[in-house]
C-alpha cells in the first residue's frame, strides 16, 4: 500500500473537518446524511486517528491543542456510532451531537493551517 504524503493527509483531515459543524443544522436531511454518515464518519476513523494526528503534529501542521480536541471529537463520534443517536433526528436535536458539531467548529476556528494549504 502506498503511503500518503503529509500534504495529502492534511487535505484529507481538512476535508473531514469540513463535513461537520453547526452549519449542518440548516441543511436538508439528505445533506446531513451524506456529510455525517458517509463523509465525516469515514474520515473520523482514519484522519482523526491518533497516528494521523501525530503525523500532522510532528510535521508542524496542527497544534497540540488541535490534536487533543480532534482526538476528543473522534471519541465522541465513535461513542455515538455505538448508541441509539446515530441518526439524523439526533444530529438535529441531541445535546451529544450538539457537542460534536460545536467542537468541530471550535477546532476549525483554532486552525493555523491556512498558510500550509
Provide key terms for this protein.
117 residues, mainly alpha, globular
Notes on the protein architecture:
By secondary structure, the chain is mainly alpha-helical. It has one domain. Helix content is 68%, strand content 0%. The protein is built from six helices and no strands. It has helices at residues 6-18, 29-47, 50-58, 64-81, 88-93, 95-109. The longest helix has 19 residues, at 29-47.
The helicity comes to 55-70%
In DSSP terms (H or I, runs of 4 or more residues), the helix count works out at 6
Supply Rg.
14 Å
Spans of 5+ residues with little confidence (pLDDT < 50)? none
**Biggest sheet layout:** none
- Give the rounded overall mean pLDDT: 93
Short characterization:
The chain is mostly helical and 117 residues long.
Describe how the helices and strands are arranged.
Blueprint: H1 6-18, H2 29-47, H3 50-58, H4 64-81, H5 88-93, H6 95-109
Helix pairs in contact: 1-2, 3-4, 4-6
Amino acid at each position: 500500500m502506498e503511503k500518503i504524503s503529509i500534504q495529502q493527509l492534511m487535505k484529507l483531515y481538512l476535508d473531514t473537518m469540513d463535513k461537520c459543524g453547526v452549519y449542518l443544522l440548516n441543511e436538508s436531511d439528505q445533506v446531513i446524511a451524506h456529510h455525517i454518515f458517509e463523509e465525516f464518519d469515514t474520515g473520523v476513523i482514519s484522519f482523526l486517528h491518533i497516528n494521523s494526528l501525530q503525523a500532522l503534529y510532528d510535521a508542524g501542521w496542527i497544534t497540540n491543542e488541535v490534536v487533543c480536541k480532534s482526538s476528543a471529537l473522534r471519541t465522541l463520534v465513535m461513542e455515538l456510532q455505538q448508541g441509539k443517536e446515530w441518526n439524523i433526528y439526533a444530529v438535529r436535536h441531541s445535546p451529544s451531537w450538539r457537542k460534536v458539531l460545536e467542537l468541530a467548529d471550535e477546532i476549525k476556528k483554532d486552525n493555523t493551517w491556512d498558510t500550509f494549504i
